[in-house]
Structures are given as C-alpha cells and as structure tokens.
Amino acid sequence: MSKMPPFIPLSKPHITEKMLENLKQCLSSGKLSGDGSFCHRVEKKFEEKLSLKHALLTSSCTHALEMATLLLEGNPGDEVILPSFTFTSSANAILVAGLKPVFCDIDPTTLNMDVNDLEKRITKKTRAIMPVHYAGVSCDMGRILQLSQHQKITIIEDAAQGVGAKWKGHYLGTIGHMGAMSFHDTKNVICGEGGAFFTNHTALAEKAEVIREKGTNRKQFLKGQVDKYTWVQKGSSYILAEPLAAILDAQFDLMDTINHKRKQIDVFYRTQLKELEQKEVIALPIIPDYCTPNHHIFHILLRNEKERNSLMDHLRQRQIGATFHYLPLHSSPQGKKLGYREGDFPISEACATRLLRLPLFPDLTPAEQSYIVEEILNWARL
Ligand SMILES: *Cc1c(COP(=O)(O)O)cnc(C)c1O
Fold first, then answer.
1. How many CA atoms lie within 13 A of 39 on its CB side?
2. Residue 2 has pLDDT above 70, yes or no
3. Ligand 1, closest atom to CA 62?
4. pTM for the full model?
5. DSSP labels for 258-305?
6. Does 213 score more than 90 pLDDT?
7. Which residues are paired to 184 by β-bridges?
8. Which residue has the higher pLDDT, 152 or 261?
9. Mutate to test the pocket of ligand 1, among 60, 182, 244, 294 (most ligand atoms within 8 A of CB)
10. Pairing of strands 100-104, 79-83
11. For helices 305-317 and 346-354, what crossing angle results, to 10°?
12. DSSP percent split of the chain into helix, strand, coil, nearest 5
C-alpha cells in the first residue's frame, strides 16, 4: 500500500454554524437548566412534524425508556418482552422499574423482533412489549399492535435509532402507547447526549412530567395550575439541559436533509455491493414494504463469523472504522443472571456473529465511499 488515508470513523456528527449560534444565544440568556424556551420549541417541532400530542425532551433515550417503564406502574414479576438483539438500555429500563425482561428472538431479514416468537412468550404476566426499531427500520407494528390490543398489553417503542423513519406513514416512536428517541452523538439527529419521550395519551404525559421533575408537580406550578409545588410521587431528574436543547433545535431543522444524505450513501453501498450479494458472499439489509427507513445503520451479513472478522480486520487495517454490533443480551453476564443461556436465541446469536456495520454519516465523501467499497471488493478477491 502506498499512502494511508486518514481514519474513516463509523459515524460522525454533522456540525453547523446554526448550532453554534443557538448555543451562544442560550448561554447569553443565562437560562441553562432544562425546560426553557429552546426545550419547548423543540418539543413543539416534534409534536407538529410527527402529529404527536406530547413530546418531552429528556437527558437521554435511556432515561426516556425509564420514564416509560416507571409509568407502567407494574408489580414485581410483571414481564416486558423485548428482543435479545438490542442495546443494554432497553433491558436496563425494565430492571430499573423493578420488572422482568423477557427476551425474544429476531427475524434474520430485518434484525427486528420476530413476531411469531414474541407471541409465544406472552403470558398472563406480560405487562408490555418493547419493539426496538433496529437501524431505523420499523418493526412489524401491524402485528404487534394486534397482539397488544387483543391482550391489553402496553407498547413502549424503543425508537432510539428511528428519528424521521416511518411505519405505514406513521413516525416511529408515535405508534405505541409510549416511545423513546435518542439524540446521542452516534444517532441521525444529535445534541451530544439527549432523548425524548413521546406519547399520545395526556394522562401518561402528565405523569411523565412529574417523573421528569424529580417527582414534583413543578410543571403544573409553572403553568399556573397549582399555587406551590411539592413532592407528589417517585421520580428522577430526566430533563435535557437548555444548551443541549439549543443544539438540538438547530439539528431538528436538518432532519430530512441528514436522512436524505444518508439515503444516498445507502443507495451507493447497495448498488456497488450488489455483485457480492448475487455471489452470495454477503446479504444486504432488507426493508419491508411497510417501512420508510432513516438509514441509521448500513450493515451487511457475512456467511459466518470467520469471514466477518476477516473483512472487519481487512477494513480496519486500511483505516476504515467498520464494526460489529450488539452481543445478544441473553448470553451476556447480566442475561445469565436472569436465567438465560447461550443457545436460547439462535438467530440473534448467528446474526451477531455475521454482522458488519459500514461507516455511514452525512459528511462521508464520495471518495471515501468509493474507497470503502473498493476495499470490500479487494477483500472478496483475496
Ligand atoms: C442508542 C440507543 C439507546 C440509548 O440511547 P441514549 O440516548 O444513549 O441513552 C437505546 N436503545 C437503542 C436501541 C439505541 O440504539
């Protein structure tokens, strides 16, 4: 190899002048704690764009999920079903609320929860289902809604990766009873660390405001609905700081532009890697008809772990930040404490060992995209 190009990361936030301007404006206003004018403006923007009744900004998606699980007001032993192939936050939120995570397997084509397996795991104790929209590709919400309505089960969408993506025209995070979204650095729309809690149920939103405000009715006090504020129930501190809301306000306006840029890169990868797919060296992600994705992740599935690791090493040696993703939660040390064992979810395990994520972010240049594809094709020729 002649000259080493600079390292290409897996993801990189898109930073603009407007973010800086908003931040300056926020700092000079002197209002830095949460629930200020930037926070309200972003909440309004989400409610309008997503045709949603209530958006509450939070310090993270993890915290929005915790608000949702606390709002279940479940009893110990109540169960929440989620895929094993997800981030730890989804399962932690269930444990934090004192409930029991029950894992299910995934569909190998979408890497989202396998609804047939989900159905088998519903019991009298099932309090909620937590669909995780992997890569910003919607779960099969039609069937999940059907199951939940039939059995009176609450749906909490983990839409951490799903900003701007849709299921049958409905924005992810607004379809279930409650939804959670992330604005972490690595997501499509960012503010460093941050999240949002969504619901169309006013009673849930009112309780969520109390949980977010350390268990007080401060929000009602600020709205003039009570004359002093007090501790009314168990809560925590889940408000997004105002400087982060200021950054998020500028990012929000770029949502469609960012997602469109990501789509172009997705299309480029797909077109260029078609040949390897036809030779069955790799499988490309499948997008079901009911889904409008936001191109949060571009992943390929290799034939086995050995080939995945070999390609990952090849790319990394050439300064390309390709990486694997989740280690299934059921076979983790904490998953084993919950009584699970390796082998319990064969599809999650197989996909985890075969999956490789490629760099995907709005500022990934055409030259970098071509270089990445070329190195994958070089590897396949070896
Ligand atoms: C990123 C992510 C989270 C956590 O989001 P934070 O905002 O970092 O707390 C939760 N679930 C999934 C599926 C994620 O991808």
1. 21
2. no
3. 9
4. 0.97
5. HHHHHHHHHHHHHHHHHHHHHTTSEE-----TTEE-----EEEEESSH
6. yes
7. 192
8. 261
9. 182
10. parallel
11. 30
12. 45, 15, 40
